[in-house]
Amino acid sequence: MFALNALRTAIRVQSALSPSAAAIRALSTATAASAGSSAAVPDVSKLSFNTLLVSKPTANVGLVTLNRPKALNALCDDLMSELNTALEHFHADPTVGAIVITGSERAFAAGADIKEMQPLTYSKCVNTNFLAHWTRVAESRKPILAAVNGFALGGGCELAMMCDIIYAGEKAQFGQPEILLGTIPGAGGTQRLTQAVGKSKAMEIVLTGDKYSAQEMERAGLVARVYPVETLVEEVVKKASKIASLSKPVVQLCKEAVNASYEMTLKEGTHFERRLFHSTFGLKDRAEGMTAFVEKRGAKFTDE
Ligand code: CO8
């Protein structure tokens, strides 16, 4: 069992600088170091954030823990900017093959920060293109797994849906309550949710603003698997570590092919899939995987 809490505490570095600035500075230093020498790996312990904890619970997994406990991890602009920075860090780290995003046992995230949004006007939203930089998670090349305990509401549910796989603790609650606030979902709650659970269920969720259990959302197809609350993060890190141990280019192609199903017709999608499948025959890892099977041994992938 991972000593996650001890690890999180140990890697949190307090800084007198503005945490975002400190994080960005540390990231640029780490990235520059890694560009200078292919052996240099950006050091996660150099990052410090206001609203997140970051760590590497295994050598090949990056873990981001949303950390605004008093606000139930409400997604403020600062948190989303820091999340982008943390993701950039893990993308720059070649040893990381998969990323896990989690929150606390009480809340994954209770939505976008309503107190921050309350004074916004239409012109401000349009002029600043509000939420435009909140979708970085969905653009990740590396697989991202959500480990959801507690509330995943509004933007919290949308953030989970931007991830590639959603795992839930058995007391997790999902919902899109924006309608109760006189607004509508703004980061995929009407789109990704409908793709995941179908029109009728998605309509019920967004039109009532009700909360739904992890078990119901697993049955509906939103959640891949439900775990006990206390072991959720550990189990998800194990899944992420397994994915990260496979061929990175093949994992990436696989993810790209699944995501293409959102955008393409069946004919286009299966054609795209077949072409990507053909392309794996240009990889050493494809030769190694099949040879290892024939020789009855474990495959040793080199990401080539
Ligand atoms: N924003 C800001 N603060 C919040 C939020 C939030 N979304 N949710 C909870 N908090 C704060 C509360 O204000 C409270 O703070 P304080 O103690 O200072 O008053 C603290 O967290 C604890 O909350 P409660 O006392 O309400 O705790 P309860 O256990 O009684 O209730 C609930 C928990 C049910 C989660 C309740 O807090 C709640 O209903 N929260 C709001 C949920 C919601 O409506 N979410 C949707 C927000 S709109 C949105 O997400 C738009 C998405 C846009 C795109 C986002 C892209 C990623």
Automatic annotation (TrEMBL):
Gene3D superfamilies noted in UniProt: 2-enoyl-CoA Hydratase, Chain A, domain 1, Lyase 2-enoyl-coa Hydratase, Chain A, domain 2
GO annotation (BP), single: fatty acid beta-oxidation
Named from the GO MF annotations, one term is: enoyl-CoA hydratase activity
By what name is this protein known? Probable enoyl-CoA hydratase, mitochondrial
- Highest taxon in the source lineage: Eukaryota
Which GO cellular component does the record give, naming just one?
A: mitochondrion
Q: What is its EC number?
A: 4.2.1.17
Keyword annotations for this protein? Fatty acid metabolism, Lipid metabolism, Lyase
Q: Tell me which family the UniProt entry assigns to this protein.
A: Belongs to the enoyl-CoA hydratase/isomerase family.
Indicate the enzyme's highest-level EC class. Answer: lyase
The record's section on Pfam families has: ECH_1 (PF00378)
Keyword Zinc found: no
Q: Which organism is it from?
A: Capsaspora owczarzaki (strain ATCC 30864)
Record carries keyword Lipid metabolism: yes
